[in-house]
Amino acid sequence: MKPDAEVLIVGAGPTGLMAAVLLTRCGITVRVFDKNTQQAHESRALAIQARTLELFLNLGLDRRMLDAGVIVHGAQMYENGQRRAELPFDDLGRTDTPFSFPLIVPQRDTEAILHDELRRLGVEVERQNEVTDLAQDADGVTLRVRGADGAETEARGAYLIGADGAHSLVRKKLGLTFAGAPYAQGFLLADCRVQWPLEDDRLMIFLKGKHIAIHFPLPGGEGRARIMAAQLTEPDAHATVESQGGTDAPLSEVEEAFRAAAGVDLTLTEPGWTSRYRVHHRGVDRYRVGRAFVAGDAAHIHSPAGGQGMNTGLQDAANLAWKLALALRRVGPATEGLLDTYHDERWPVGQRVLKYTDTLFSGMTSQSDWFAAARNFIAPRLAGSLLHFPGVRAKAFHFISQLGIHYKDDAPDPGKGPWKGGPDVGYRAPNASYARNRDVFGLLTGYRFHVLAFSWRALSSSEAAGICDRLAALLSPVGVTLQTHLVARLSGGPDARAQRAESGAAFEAYGVDHDTPQALYVIRPDGYVAWRSNTLDLTAAEGFLREYGSGSE
Ligand SMILES: Cc1cc2nc3c(=O)[nH]c(=O)nc-3n(C[C@H](O)[C@H](O)[C@H](O)COP(=O)(O)OP(=O)(O)OC[C@H]3O[C@@H](n4cnc5c(N)ncnc54)[C@H](O)[C@@H]3O)c2cc1C
Questions:
Q1: CATH of residue 442
Q2: Section 153-166 average pLDDT
Q3: What is the pLDDT of residue 552?
Q4: Which of 44, 141, 215, 319 for mutating ligand 1's site (highest number of atoms within 8 Å of CB)?
Q5: pLDDT above 70 as % of the chain
Q6: Atom of ligand 1 nearest to the CA of 40
C-alpha cells in the first residue's frame, strides 16, 4: 500500500498539533487524527515555560502567546492565613532569553494558536476519527481509523507519532510499559472569580495544617483565577492509568477546600471549568518502536507541580519533528542512528521531570501531621530567604523554565573545556544581542538548521564578502533548509549579508574573544548546538553537514 502521508499523528492535543506544525514547516506531509469532535475547551495546563516561548518565537507565534497570557510578576506564600513570603519574579537574572518570566496561558488558547497555524499551513485535523489499531512493517505504518459514521478505513504513512495522551492506544499497541503509580492526593480545580480581601494578580500558595491550595491569576484580570486545592483520595496502589484524568466537581467543594487552606473569608463565583483531577506518575520504557514514536502524555504523565507536563510534550515534538524530516528527505545512508537519538535525548528528560515533580508534589501534599507542620513553617521562610539571592533565583528559573535542558551528559561544563565559554554540542544556543535591537534569536528562526559564523576580529569588506559567499555555498542537510549568518566586527563599509556587531554580548555568549577570535556553530532546528569549531573552518562544517543524520553517526 502506498503511503498517503509521510507522517501519521494520532492526537491533536498540544503535542500532536506542535508536531504537525513543525513537520509541515519542514515540507513533510502529515495526517492528524483526533477522536474528539472539537478542540479541548478546558484551561488544563497553564504554565508556559521560557523554553516553550522560545519555540513559539522560532515559529513567529510568541506575540500571540504573550497576548493570550498573563505574566506572573511574583508569588506569595501564606501560612495559616498570614503572608510569610514574597517571591519576586521580575528579576530572574537571565539575560540569555527574551522570556525571563513565567507566563500563564490556558491550554485551550495554546492549542487554538497551534491549530490556527496548522490550518494556515493547509492542514486540517481529521476530527471524529478514532484510531483503533496499528500495524507496522519494514516500509511504514498502517492505522485503522473509525470515522464519525462508524465505518473503518485504513491510513498509511512512513512514520507514526502517538501523541494520544495519557490513555494512549498507540503506547498500548506498541507494547510499551508505563511504569509508575497513582498519587493518593488528587486535585480540586476551578477556573472562576474569587471575591476576597487579598490581591488578585499574584500566584499564591496557601498552607494551613494539612491543607494546601494555589491561586493562579488568569488572563483578563478582574479576580479571575485558577484555584487548585489538594485533596486526599482513597489510595489505590493498583489503580490503572485509566483512572488518571478529571471529572466535574461542584464549585462549593472547591470553595470549601480553598477556604480551608487560605484561612481567609472568600467566595468563588462564575465557574468556567471545574474538575476533580486524579494524577499518576508514569513513564514509558522506550520512546521509539521501529517506525512509531510516542510523545507528550502518551510517554510521560506526572503531577502538575512545577508546570512541566505540556511544556515537556511540546519539546518532545520539537526534538522529533526535524529528525523525521531528515530521515524522510535525506538521500543516502540510513538515518536509524539519528532517529534513535529521540529516545536517547528525550527519555532521560521525561525521567528527570517525573523525579522532580514527584519530589515536589509529595513534599507539598504530604498528609502526615508532623511533616505538614514542618512544611508550613519551613517552606515559606526558606523560599523567601533563598530566593532573595539573585544567583539562587537565576538557578531556580533556569531549571524550572527548561532552559537548562541539554543532551550531552558527558559534556564538559561550558567554560571548563579547552575552548572556554560558548555552548558546547548538545547545549541550547543562547540569545544575546550583537547590535541595538538585534539579537541571535532574531537570526535563529523558522525551525531550520542555521550556521552561525562569528568574527571578533574586524573583517574588511572583501573578507566579509568572501566568508558570506562560502557560507551561502554550504550544503543543506537534504530536505531541511539551512540558513547561514555572519556576525562580525566590520572594518569596511556595510555588507547586506553580514550582521555588523556593535556590542560584545553575542561574542561573549558564544565564547568568541581575543583568544578565540572566530567561531562557527551549526544549530539544530530545535535550538541546540549540533557542531562547533573555534575557527571558521567551513570545510569541516560542510563535512559535518554532509554526514549529519546518516547511519555513520
Ligand atoms: C482535567 C485535566 C487537568 C489538567 N491540569 C493540568 C495542569 O494544571 N497543569 C499541567 O501541566 N497539566 C495539566 N493537565 C495535563 C495537560 O493537559 C497535559 O500534559 C497535556 O494536555 C498533554 O498534551 P498531549 O498533547 O500530550 O495530550 P492530550 O492533551 O491528552 O491530547 C491527546 C489527544 O489525543 C486524542 N486521542 C486519544 N486517543 C485517541 C485515539 N485512539 N484516536 C484519535 N485520537 C485520540 C484525544 O482526543 C486528545 O485530543 C491536565 C489534564 C487534564 C485531563
A1: 3.40.30.20
A2: 97
A3: 42
A4: 44
A5: 92
A6: 49
Residues 273 and 317 in one domain: no
Judge if the beta carbon of residue 130 lies within 6 A of ligand 1.
Answer: yes
343 shares its domain with 394: no
3-state secondary structure string across 388-435? CCHHHHHHHHHHHCCCCCCCCCCCCCCCCCCCCCCCCCCCECCCCEEE
d(CA 404, CA 399): 6
Q: What is the DSSP string of 192-238?
A: EEEESSS-SSSEEEEEETTEEEEEEE-TT-TTEEEEEEEEE----TT
In a domain, 344, yes or no: yes
Q: Is 45 exposed, middle or buried (0-12, 13-18, 19+ CB in 10 A)?
A: buried
Instruction: Report CA(165)–ligand 1 centroid distance (Å).
Output: 5
Most trustworthy range by pLDDT among 348-362, 411-425, 460-474: 460-474
Domain coverage including residue 297: 5-58+105-176+285-367
- Which amino acid is residue 302, in one-letter code? H
Q: Are 253 and 305 in contact (CB under 8 A)?
A: no
Task: Give the Å distances, CA to CA, from 328 to 23, 28, 97, 319, 325.
Answer: 11, 8, 32, 15, 5
Rounded CA-CA distance 103/402 in Å is: 13
**191 Cβ inside 6 Å of ligand 1:** no
| Distance from Cα 15 to the centre of ligand 1, integer Å | 9
- C-beta 131 within 6 A of ligand 1: yes
Residues in the chain: 553
Whether 274 lines ligand 1, by a CB cut-off of 6 Å, is no
pTM: 0.93
Q: Is the CB of 451 under 6 A from ligand 1?
A: no
Q: What is the CATH number of the domain that holds 266?
A: 3.30.70.2450
Give the position of cell 500500500: 1
Q: Which amino acid is at 455?
A: S
Average pLDDT over residues 215-238: 82
The CA 186 to ligand 1 mean position distance, Å, reads: 17
Residue 147 Cβ inside 6 Å of ligand 1? The answer reads no
Identify the residue whose cell numbers are 543562547. Answer: 430
Residues 127 and 193 in one domain: no
User: Is the per-residue pLDDT at 1 higher than 80?
Assistant: no
pLDDT for 553 = 38
pLDDT for 364: 67
- The predicted-structure confidence for 367-412, as pLDDT tens digits, reads as follows 677 777 777 777 777 777 777 777 888 888 888 899 999 997 655 5
